[in-house]
């Protein structure tokens, strides 16, 4: 998952949710979250229901009463083609 540039990393354990209030339902959660100096933005890993089919989707992330926005992104953000690996 990724957040907009300039935003803080997502809290570990925060839930990816749909709906609001009593109708809010968890689709998964953030397993780790850090600031990436290489990408210049916060990145996170998470387990999300049907995550592969949600690539590029904007989702709500809920933690301790606060809702933030993030995007479901591929796990490989720096070199998806593997060009650096196979230099």
List low-pLDDT spans: none
Total strands: 5
How far apart the termini lie comes to 27 Å
Q: For the CA atoms, what is the radius of gyration? A: 14 Å
Helical proportion?
Answer: under 10%
Strand content: 35-45%
What is the mean pLDDT?
89
- The strand order across the widest sheet is 3-2-1-4-5
Can you write the helix and strand succession as a string? Answer: EEEEE
Largest sheet: 5 strands, antiparallel
Question: Based on helices, strands and strand pairing, what is the structural class?
Answer: mainly beta
Q: Sum up the overall morphology in one term.
A: globular
The number of helical elements comes to 0
Main features:
globular, five-stranded antiparallel sheet, 0% helix, mainly beta
Detailed description of the structure:
The chain has 87 residues and is mainly β. The protein contains no helices and 5 strands. It has strands at 15-18, 25-36, 41-48, 58-63, 66-71. The chain has a 5-stranded antiparallel β-sheet, with no helix packed on it.
Topology:
Elements: E1 15-18, E2 25-36, E3 41-48, E4 58-63, E5 66-71
Antiparallel strand pairs: 1-2, 1-4, 2-3, 4-5
TL;DR?
The protein is an all-beta fold and 87 residues long. The chain has strands at residues 15-18, 25-36, 41-48, 58-63, 66-71. Strand 2 and strand 3 form a beta hairpin.
């Amino acid at each position: 998952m990724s957040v907009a540039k300039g935003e803080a990393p997502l809290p570990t354990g925060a839930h990816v949710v749909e709906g609001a209030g009593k109708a809010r339902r968890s689709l998964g959660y953030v397993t780790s979250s850090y600031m990436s100096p290489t990408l210049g933005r916060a990145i996170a890993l998470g387990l999300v229901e049907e995550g592969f089919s949600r690539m590029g989707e904007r989702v709500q992330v809920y933690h301790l009463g606060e809702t933030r926005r993030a995007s479901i992104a591929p796990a490989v953000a720096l070199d998806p083609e593997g060009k650096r690996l196979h230099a």
